[in-house]
Amino acid sequence: MPGPSQEPNTSDLSKLERRQLLTVGVLAATAALLGGARPAQAFYQAPPGFRALVDKLDGYTVVYPERWLPVTITGNDCFLRNPSNIDENLFVDISSPSSTQFGSVEDLGSVEKTAQDILEKYINREFMSTRLGIRREGQILSASQRTGTDGRTYYDIAIRMTSYASRSPYVATRAEVLRDYGIEWDRVLLTTLGVANKRLYELRLQTATDTYAASGPLLTGIANSFTLKEVEVFRERTEMKVQEDSRCPGLVNICQAATLARDGGGGEDSGWRIGADGQR
After folding, report:
1. Lowest mean pLDDT: which of 11-25, 74-88, 251-265?
2. Residue 18 has pLDDT above 80, yes or no
3. How many angstroms separate the CA atoms of 43 and 28, rounded?
């Protein structure tokens, strides 16, 4: 894992980004309160050093440092990485419109229960390893509920995940394996959850634990910039779906085609893009 000594400019860059992020918050609040703009559109004009990713199709906005680069080979709705710190990245994931429908993030239960559910998912599924001599441990650092600038309820959850690897995984007994463990990686995962369009939206940010103290304020600011809005196409699609069987059986093909195009199933050119104005 790269340490601070290997990234001599990371600290200075983080300080600059944190100062700029204060400007992001001021611009967003001013645009929403004085300009009469809808809060989800308040980040269209990002300050110097930042860009706004505005996804009009799926209905979310997030501000991120302009030097972060998109990664297009993942299965997430979007994925961005800090090229100066390989452990630092963010992604947005959205539940399928054909799966469970949500009225509010509170449908998940309390924020404390949701944090525990996420921790168990990390340990038992997402970060579970079948390699010999690997042990994964997690700790909930914080779990809070807030009302965003768009008036929606959000859950903010921070979890530390640590991977331990045995330096002697092929010795004869488990006791010998456990005797010589070292840290393989150590990360903090920040998750922001919200609901719009009857779908669950997840913004996840990641950084190394040893740089969390420095980059934490920046990542928290990015999480607070994450806003959602209702998209008319979802309501129209739901109304069409109710009527399709009795009135127009062929309509189901239209709905499926629209869903495939939105979710990236319409060919190699159907992936998400970030334009000069930050819009897809």
Report:
1. 251-265
2. no
3. 6
